[in-house]
TrEMBL record:
It comes from Vreelandella sulfidaeris. Signal peptide: none annotated. GO terms for molecular function: aldehyde dehydrogenase (NAD+) activity. InterPro entries: Epimerase_deHydtase (IPR001509), NAD(P)-bd_dom_sf (IPR036291), NAD(P)-dependent_oxidoreduct (IPR051783). This is SDR family NAD(P)-dependent oxidoreductase. Transmembrane segments: none annotated.
Length: 293
């Protein structure tokens, strides 16, 4: 059955998701402020700023079977997060609920940053969010706005996303910089292609008649220390670690994300761990060739 999927904040993840859905025969509409990036993708562009939806009519947004809200804040500031997440999502929900045919489900792309654990604790969907940062707090506010809304909604908390073009860690290692062994800092990661794979899978899951949960953690199958990830990368790049790098204080959380809820739905990770994922990024990004030269 052909579906219409509206992707709000159609950036890297949205475009990748759109291509996957188009291959399945669905119609995809991508909403963003700058639609030039959608040229040649097959995604129908919709140029719009969410701030313009304050008092907008229902016709401002098209009807869709599924809505994927994957907006990114303009900058790491409280006002930007407030606008992008709770305020923006609430505006979209207010409009979509007025449609003659409301969406079957709204997906909100959130972050595992809502979990602020620092001692390597295991967290899952039942673990109460406890972030003290403004970013985590505002993400939680947006999550609750969706979960408490009359429209069916599902939150997907992605961990650290990497993939093509998201290679900052590789560049740091290439410069000989690696994380310290101690204090032990656990890192949770997910390849961009698994982000889009999970969203597409959950749409298919509901269409097959299954019941979706309110929240899923989107993280790969192997939580690992940052030191081990960077040392593995150094080995692939044939680089000697020459400098110990300390994480910025605001990012020094340490937890292990349990992904069993999404796995139990039948989703099979394309990149089960950082090894498979970074091997693909290293190869496609030409990092190995550059190093050989």
């Amino acid at each position: 059955m052909k579906l219409t999927v509206l992707i709000i904040g159609c950036g890297d993840i949205g475009i990748n998701l759109g291509r996957e859905l188009l291959e399945e025969g669905h119609q995809v509409i991508g909403l963003r402020r700058n639609v030039e990036a959608l040229e040649g993708t097959g995604i129908k562009p919709l140029k719009l700023d969410l701030n313009d939806l304050e008092d907008a009519e229902p016709s401002s947004l098209p009807q869709a079977d599924y809505v994927v809200y994957t907006v990114s804040a303009d900058r790491f500031e409280e006002s930007a997060y407030q606008s992008a997440y709770p305020e923006g999502l609430k505006r979209v929900l207010r409009i979509m609920e007025q449609h003659k045919t409301p969406p079957r489900r709204v997906f909100f792309v959130s972050s595992t940053s809502v979990h602020g654990q620092q001692e390597g604790e295991v967290v899952n969907e039942e673990t109460p969010p406890d972030s003290t940062s403004f970013s985590g707090t505002l993400m939680c506010e947006a999550e609750q706005a969706l979960i408490n809304h009359s429209l069916p909604g599902t939150v997907i908390r992605f961990s650290g996303i990497y993939g093509p073009g998201r290679d900052r860690l590789i560049h740091q290692v290439a410069e000989g910089r690696v994380a310290a062994i101690t204090p032990v800092v656990y890192s949770n990661r997910i390849h961009r292609d698994d982000c889009t794979g999970i969203i597409a899978h959950l749409i298919r899951y509901q269409e097959s008649g299954e019941t979706l949960a309110d929240i899923y953690l989107g993280s790969d199958c192997e939580p690992v220390t940052m030191h081990n990830v960077m040392m593995w990368l150094a080995k692939q790049l044939n680089v000697e670690a020459s400098e110990t790098m300390q994480s910025p204080l605001r990012r020094r959380t340490s937890k292990r994300c349990d992904n069993q809820r999404i796995v139990s739905t039948g989703y099979q990770f394309r990149f089960p761990s950082y090894r498979e994922g970074y091997a693909q990024v290293l190869k496609e990004g030409g990092f190995l060739e550059v190093n050989k030269a």
